[in-house]
Amino acid sequence: GAVVSQHPSRVICKSGTSVKIECRSLDFQATTMFWYRQFPKKSLMLMATSNEGSKATYEQGVEKDKFLINHASLTLSTLTVTSAHPEDSSFYICSATITEAFFGQGTRLTVV
Amino acid sequence: AQTVTQSQPEMSVQEAETVTLSCTYDTSESDYYLFWYKQPPSRQMILVIRQEAYKQQNATENRFSVNFQKAAKSFSLKISDSQLGDAAMYFCAYRSARYGSEKLVFGKGTKLTVNP
After folding, report:
1. Which of A54, A64, B68, B94 has its CA 20 to 30 A from that of A35?
2. CB A75 within 8 A of CB A24
3. Contact, A52 vs A30, CB < 8 A?
4. B114: pLDDT confidence band, cut at 50, 70 and 90?
């Protein structure tokens, strides 16, 4: 089946710094990718829809200046958490859809 | 807006037994897709089964089957001959079939425990 690769799987960063998470579709082209955030023992919360060649569409309540999304090619979307704070610590997951959604492995972000 | 409700936060089943996870949804659309995803402790989301709303026949994948009741907007998952590896969080999800509407709407999940 289709593969979506997400990197890094774990990252620890200091407060105030920025961290970039990559999401790649390895064997198919994805004009649209999705970024989710998942709190412990909770469901996936859609943060934004990443559109190749255009601006991302953010869900209500998601700060677009804090969570920068760039979808520069048909196989790569990046999520940059800017000026990270401890409350940004979470599990972030990306997905891309063909007939069904394929998910990356997720990134555990810890801000210290 | 579409919503997905999973009313069972936790379920448990004995190994080799059968368990049914419930899911209801709300939509005004007539064409859509429904999914069950499994999230084991690794947190990798794995597709278990999918159902197209226009199909009356219930989807089946080996030990996993669904009971899709379109009029009742119900989409339950039955796991037969439960195995220890089935222990995970299970999420029910909805997706519109409209072109350009690929995002998934998830339920809150059901944590399944399989007892040996």
Report:
1. B68
2. yes
3. yes
4. very high
Reported as a pLDDT band with limits 50, 70 and 90, residue A1 is: low
Computed from CA positions of residues B33, B73, B67, A43, in that sequence, does the dihedral angle turn out positive or negative?
positive
For residue B106, pLDDT beyond 90: yes
- Give yes or no for B25 touching A (CB within 8 A): no
Distance CA B105, CA B1 (A): 10
Q: Mutating which of A37, A43, A58 best tests the B interface, going by the most B Cβ atoms within 10 A?
A: A43
Task: Write the residue in A32, A38, A100 that is nearest to B50 by C-beta.
Answer: A100
**Two tokens at B53?**
């709303």
Do residues A82 and A111 touch, judged by C-beta distance below 8 A? no
| The token pair that represents A44 in the structure block | 């996936």
